[in-house]
Amino acid sequence: MKKFKSLVLFLVLGFLVVFSAACGSGASTQEDTNTGSDDKKTEKEEAALEGSVVIDGSGTVYPFMSKMAENYMTENEEVSVEVSRAGTSAGFEKFLVEENGTDFNDASREIKDEEVAKAEELGIEYKEFQVALDGLTFVINKDNDWATEMTQEEVVKIFLAEGGVTKWSDINPEWPAEEIKPMGPNENHGTNEFMFETIMEEKDFVDSVNLQQEYSTLVDLVSKDKNAIAFFGYGYYESNKDKLNAVSVDFGNGPVAPSLDTIGLDDAAGYKAFTRPVFTYLNVGMAKEKPQVLDYAIYTMENAQTVASETGFAPLKDDVIQESISYLEGLK
């Protein structure tokens, strides 16, 4: 009997040892599994982008950059991309400040010497990127059926103080003897500067020109006045074709209508004389400091050609895009 009790006790103790070992092994496995899961979660959290990207500047570039921001935020929900349109010059004022400047400034002209000097004074490193090509477009009222085609010289004369053109009949005696209402964006916009500096060769605007801050105001004014003519980027015409007509311009080889196909063409069929690149300027310091800013810059260049075509711009060539992407990748 005594031997039997000893045997039972031995078996019970053995069972407890095996059970404890099994439980210990299971606990260890569970702990290892949880640790691995936490590591993966931490890595994922560290890789996720968050924070803000602040962009201001050109009203011309605004439709392009606004669409780009919308697309980006769909894929990166924790990043807020804020896009405003103070105008190129006003945008540079917000970009070139000692603290809390914008991350990007969109521009419909290149940065000026005095803006370069200010950047150097403040120690701000920036990088210029072309994002698309735009065609300076002259728009008229839907009821204007006489001025649908003009030569480059004729359309520019309308806006020149020395042009001697005040009525449509001054251009063509068969046209109405009614006063022309020239309009365009004001001096805050790079489009105004492109018109003044490049197209008008820095000659004064006619006194009667009506210069506005908002492109939507210009669209409205021209759509309501059959004697109005305004200039702005092709994208604003593209999105308002139901309200406006575009003037086909003869650069010497017959009238050319502005379009995504003709803007920037090098041959005689192109709209090249009124074509310009549009830009965004990146604060390189912010790109190095804030991962979301650099990521957005890369995303913008990778998708620039697609978004350009969708927002009324002619896309850049592949080699221009790739050069920009390579530079940005080098900042990582």
From TrEMBL:
The keyword Protein biosynthesis does not apply. Keywords: Cell membrane, Lipoprotein, Membrane, Palmitate, Phosphate transport, Signal, Transport. Transmembrane segments: none annotated. PROSITE patterns: PROKAR_LIPOPROTEIN. Residues 27-36 have a biased composition (Polar residues). The keyword Transport applies. Residues 1-20 form the signal peptide. Residues 44-264 form the PBP domain. Residues 37-47 have a biased composition (Basic and acidic residues). It comes from the Bacteria. It is found in: Cell membrane. NCBIfam families: ptsS_2. This is Phosphate-binding protein. It comes from Metabacillus malikii. The lineage of its organism: Bacteria, Bacillati, Bacillota, Bacilli, Bacillales.
